# Entry
Amino acid sequence: METQRGFKLLNVFTGFFVAVLVVVPSLGAKFIAVGPFYFPGGTLIFPLTFIINGVLTEVYGFARSRRVIWIGMGCQFLAAVAWWLVGVWPSAPFWHNQESYDAILGIAPRITLGSFTAYFCGEFLKSVLLSKMKFAQGGKRGVLQGWRFIASSIAGEFIDSAVFMFVAFAGTQSAADLFKLALTLWIAKVIYEIVALPLSLWLANRVKQIEGVDKIDRPEETNYNPFASFLKGD
# Structure
């Protein structure tokens, strides 16, 4: 049973989740090389959002995960507006680095739009699938727990990678190149999460012990509408 006391770690996970989302768009302005493969710089840390989302949904349930997803989206939007506002604001006479600023953050609004859209689709898909799989599996741990973490990430990361690449970089690369980049990005993220799976499972189960909660979302009690957080009484 879920306890009525305040959670110790929910705010901590929310803080890390938001921090990753805020820095990812600016990191995406640079492509990095990993051997013969090329990825947006944000790939180094963006999969952490799916790992944290998995822990949130597994431990606290879909409703709380949904709130954190929206908080992260709001903070990411605020960061994009701040970058744009500072970019268009008249510079001080002694400051001559506008081109450098534009090179790193000038394209952030478009990358943020891609990240924003992809994040909305991917994170909610991940959370919904994990929640429903946990109910279907009776909340069992071990191999089944690992499978629901990975299966939900495979689906969520695929949508995230495809949407991000085509929204953020459409027109700068051919459709074929974007497809290859999206596919490579998806595979890299899935591998990332598979490697991190033992840590993800340990963390989720440890948090359950600390918080005294192991939420299983029952279909008759759970509203999977991503906008339900804004509906009266939800």
